[in-house]
From TrEMBL:
It catalyses: 5-hydroxy-2-oxo-4-ureido-2,5-dihydro-1H-imidazole-5-carboxylate + H(+) = (S)-allantoin + CO2. Its EC number is 4.1.1.97. Keywords: Decarboxylase, Lyase, Purine metabolism. Signal peptide: none annotated. GO terms for molecular function: 2-oxo-4-hydroxy-4-carboxy-5-ureidoimidazoline decarboxylase activity. InterPro entries: OHCU_decarboxylase, OHCU_decarboxylase-2, OHCU_decarboxylase_sf. It comes from the Bacteria. This is 2-oxo-4-hydroxy-4-carboxy-5-ureidoimidazoline decarboxylase. Residues 8-155 form the Oxo-4-hydroxy-4-carboxy-5-ureidoimidazoline decarboxylase domain. The lineage of its organism: Bacteria, Bacillati, Actinomycetota, Actinomycetes, Pseudonocardiales. One of its GO terms (biological process) is purine nucleobase metabolic process. NCBIfam families: PRK13798.1, UraD_2. It is an enzyme of class 4 (lyase). Pathway: Purine metabolism; urate degradation; (S)-allantoin from urate: step 3/3.
Length: 159
């Protein structure tokens, strides 16, 4: 797809799988498609900001690998996820596993952060700080992190 002009003119059915790789929420995918044409990439990226309900959040994070793990499936989002986590040092693997387990026991879902630009130590510090959140607050934080990831991926999708 040649940039934003290609995105704006592509058949909706061609865009839906790519958008689902950015944020796996059908309502969001439909809204992004329906709002075309976008005058610029910033207007498209602004669509990443969305208030998701609990089920949408849980559905969206289901396809994300745990921090420090490889994606369970191939495809564009697996490649993006690997690049997004590139700052997470593999030498922290044991600490990340333990932190992920504690988080999942506390909240019942995987820990998700927009890891782009974060070191492994920064990720661990963020995870530790978020352990004090109540479950509803944590879902709002996850919603914001999903929006950050979606924004990054939308930029890549139209690059």
């Amino acid at each position: 797809m040649p940039g934003l002009p290609g995105f704006n003119s592509a058949p909706a059915d061609d865009l839906r799988p790519l958008l689902a790789e950015c944020l796996a929420v059908p309502r969001w995918v439909d809204a992004v498609v329906a709002a075309r044409p976008y005058p610029d990439v910033d207007a498209l990226v602004a669509r990443a900001e969305v208030d998701l309900d609990t089920q949408e959040i849980l559905g969206a994070i289901a396809g994300h690998p745990r921090i420090g793990e490889r994606a369970r499936h191939g495809g564009v989002s697996a490649k993006w996820s690997s690049a997004e986590q590139s700052g997470v040092d593999a030498s922290l693997a044991d600490r990340l596993v333990a932190a992920n387990v504690a988080y999942e026991e506390r909240f019942g879902h995987i820990y998700l952060v927009c890891a782009t630009g974060l070191s492994g130590e920064q990720v661990l510090a963020d995870l530790a700080a978020r352990m004090d959140n109540d479950p509803d607050t944590e879902l709002r934080v996850v919603n914001r992190e999903l929006a950050k990831i979606a924004a990054l991926r939308l930029r890549k999708a139209v690059a």
